[in-house]
Amino acid sequence: MLTRDRQPSSDRALPTFISLVVLGILLMTLHVRLEGGGVVDILRTGTQAIVSPLQRGVSYVVNPIADAIEGLGDISGLREENIALRAALEESQAELIAVEDQLARLDLLEDLYGLDELDSDLGRTVANVIGRPDPFDASFIIDRGSSHGIVVGQPVIDSNGFVVGSVSSVTPVSATIVPITASREGVIVLVGSQVGSLTSLVNSDEMRLEITDAKEPVLATERVLTSAASVSFPAGLPVGEVVEDLAIASGGITGVVQPYVDIDTLRLVVVLAWPADPISAAGQDEVQVEETTTTTISETTTTEGG
Length: 306
Known about the structure:
3 helices, Thrombin, subunit H, six-stranded antiparallel barrel, alpha+beta, six-stranded antiparallel β-barrel, 22% strand
């Protein structure tokens, strides 16, 4: 019973389908003729009519997702930029704190030592160490020069009053300082009551002490000061201390002195205007020599007259 009912339906469906196909082809042909276009254009138009709603739907769904992903990328970039800005800010704050510390230190030193770089009567100029001309050269550069009253040959000390070295060259805004540990010239020093000399040692931050006419042994840690016989430094400036006990040998003493100043950690120095007026001092010496010569001639003349 069921088989007989279904068979006539399937027989009718096939002719119906064929009829619809033929009708569709006829309608398309008629439409093409009326519109003047080709079959491809018709198919393209139909395809666009079908796909366009789908594209709009996909765009509606996909675009927010793409925007969200792009936004996440922007957030990640902003986060990295924020981290970099924070690091730069922290570095700037650290530099600002360092500068403030230096200024506070300078104010304290000026109060303690009465230093005023703008007051020429004091004969002292505070300067900062700003660099070294050569990694293999112990000399260093300060940020004060001839425009600040600095001249070649002036002695240099640190903030504690310890001997550093002397000025070797000057520009209007800077000067080069040669430490005593690197200078070819010796320093006349006083060890206790004995006068000796300090000379530099090759590739060493220590110095060689030599007392040619020693009267007594020298003990370790004994302070070494600049002597009044020195032509490079004022008398009484601390230089360093003796490293070990030194006995007299062949009438003299030879040993090693460790300077108080560590050049590698030096950040602030004081340049001394010493002698205070070298031109006047030189003039006085010349006058004294002339007076002495005149006196000698007069005495000689008197003797001959008698």
